[in-house]
Amino acid sequence: MGLLESIDAIRQAEGEHLVDWQAAAQAAMASTPRGTLDLDDTERHAYHDAVVEAKDAVERVVESEIYLPPRIEILDRHHWIDRTAISFERIVDPTMPETTSPDVARSINTTTASFTLAVLGRRVVGQYEPALFGTPEDRALYVVHPNILTMADELGVPVAPFRRWVIHHEVSHAAEFHLAPWLTDYLETRIERAIGEIFHGHLDRDALRELTLAMTVVEGFAELLMDEAIDEDVSHLRDRLEARRAGLGPLTQLIDWFLGITAKRKQYEWGRAFFLEVAHERGIEATLAVWERPEHLPSSSELNDPTAWIDRVDP
Fold this sequence. Notes:
single chain; mainly alpha; Lysin; three-stranded mixed β-sheet; 15 helices
């Protein structure tokens, strides 16, 4: 499979929506090496044990039992692309108008979606799927085995500790959605408002701001929780990731900006700095107050001034 197959999948894009997600997935898979899922029993047990270990460790930190999603899967790149296209379709299509636009417009949109899936399919190492606009049964935790192998090799670190680090991070995300039962509805409401307004020619700045702040909190808290839960110093992994990112070429940096990857990294850093300061001032248990109710989410000014958030929420 390759460029010709990818182009042919785009050419056959059809349907009532602005993106043909099935065609986008097919095109992305045609241009993306599947990667190996040839795991022996030792490797499969290592993944299982890492998930159990991460769950126990996170529960000790938050002092509460957490529930993992019903599906925990080891994927290759094509599996991840297929599942993520389904998630994108579930999120985007209900808020997008049906279209009678020319086939060329649908092809352009499908090409953009395919490009996004292909790039991310080579880079995502793990993912917690909260099943936005889905059902609880749609929730899942994924690890992309070929990308874990590739990334560990690029960072020059053993696979085992890198795998543990990735899984601790995704289990930390699962813990957030367990601690905050309101979070899924909160995100869905703002996504629906933001996307719906964009496709009607408007920009709901409030929805976009609230969505950005919520995701900054989600990413930052997961970083803190992961570091607290894992029983080893992982600063060297974070340092090597940062060094790798700094060494990316200009084209890759442009792609990262276009896909929002650069903004996501800033969310990690901004949110993590906020929670580190709260934990320093009041202890790790004080950070959990952020999940008690939506009103406890910090504002943008409070993210820059954690003491103001502490004074308001009084955790």
